[in-house]
UniProtKB/TrEMBL annotation:
It comes from Cinclus mexicanus. The gene is Cln6. Keywords: Membrane, Transmembrane, Transmembrane helix. One of its GO terms (biological process) is lysosome organization. Pfam families: CLN6. The keyword Membrane applies. The keyword Lyase does not apply. The chain crosses the membrane at residues 86-103, 115-132, 183-203, 210-226, 232-249, 261-283. This is CLN6 protein.
Length: 319
């Protein structure tokens, strides 16, 4: 009887375990990174998200310094936030929201803790950059030249006391180094985390629809601006190499990129080609060479503008 009772208890526990597994097919780990139901699903191209993502990048990021220069100065006095600052504020809210929505649509369960920490760091870094970039771009109206270092700028080197120059260098550090690092490292990390879920065993799903082909050009051009203006080529190239290594590793398993993965991967490839063309075009520019010494020479578009295009506009105005 004791043996029968033990057998009944064992069968009951087994059936209870099977029942609980049937009712709860996904058991989250402490890190929220594993699901038993993680299988490769058909994922359509996220036209809405990629379109909004590309559009807001162009308008709110690339367009903010242009809006600040074009709009009349009387509308936004130098001691108040500019139109570009409001663009930057909107970018700091909309971009993390779109990144979170992109992560949600991944067919693979991704490490949530890493995603949340990355988003928080992204918002903090972009906010630091907002302040530093706002002041630095406002200095253009006072004659600041982005192709020169802080101490070489005529409006800076004559400041008294000289400790004020250190303050402007601190501002430049927050803008160009700390702000960029805390902004772009989480940004590319989130894109790579999403990219890890963009694989499928179905070869027919590994193709880009027409909408993706139309968006890949504007997306690549924006990434070119992001890498060159942000001076983050090392971060970009390491992310690209990691994506290439992952693609080759997954191919050995019989997996290929889906339409979203192809869109992101091709955008990075075209971005790399655009950077090579940009560097080749300005290879012999002596002034920019002095501004960007070292092995990696990638001039910023706004430094090129203040050096060449701004002078051209002033000459036209004098005529």
């Amino acid at each position: 009887s004791q043996g029968n009772a033990a057998l009944v208890r064992e069968n009951g526990c087994a059936s209870s375990r099977s029942c609980s597994m049937a009712l709860c097919p996904s058991v989250p780990s402490r890190h929220g990174a594993v699901k038993a139901e993680d299988t490769f699903k058909t994922t359509p191209f996220h036209l809405d998200l990629w379109f909004y993502f590309t559009l807001q990048n162009w308008v709110l990021d690339f367009g903010r310094p242009i809006a600040m220069i074009i709009l009349p100065l009387e509308w936004f006095p130098l001691n108040k936030p500019s139109a570009g600052d409001y663009f930057h504020m909107a970018y700091n809210v909309i971009t993390p929201f779109l990144l979170l929505k992109l992560i949600e649509r991944s067919p693979k369960t991704l490490p949530r803790s890493m995603v949340y920490v990355s988003i928080i760091t992204f918002v903090m870094g972009a906010s630091i950059h907002l302040v530093g970039d706002s002041v630095n771009h406002r200095l253009i109206f006072s004659g600041y030249q982005h192709h020169l270092s802080v101490r070489e700028n005529p409006i800076i080197r004559n400041l008294k006391p000289e400790t004020l120059i250190d303050s402007f260098e601190l501002l430049y550090y927050y803008d160009e180094y700390l702000g960029h690092s805390m902004w772009y490292i989480p940004f590319f990390l989130i894109l790579f985390i999403y990219f890890t879920g963009c694989f499928t065993p179905v070869l027919e799903q590994s193709r880009m629809p027409l909408a993706a082909l139309l968006l890949v050009g504007p997306s690549s051009l924006y990434y070119w601006y992001l890498v060159t203006e942000g001076q983050i080529f090392i971060l970009f190239i390491f992310t690209f190499f990691a994506m290439m290594a992952l693609v080759m590793h997954q191919r050995r398993k019989g997996l290929v990129l889906d339409s979203n993965g192809l869109f992101l991967f091709h955008s990075f490839i075209i971005t790399l080609l655009l950077i090579a063309l940009w560097v080749g075009w300005l290879w012999n520019d002596r002034i920019l060479r002095k501004k960007y010494p070292g092995v990696i020479y990638i001039p910023e578009p706004w430094a090129f503008y203040t050096l060449h295009m701004n002078n051209l506009h002033e000459a036209k105005g004098a005529l």
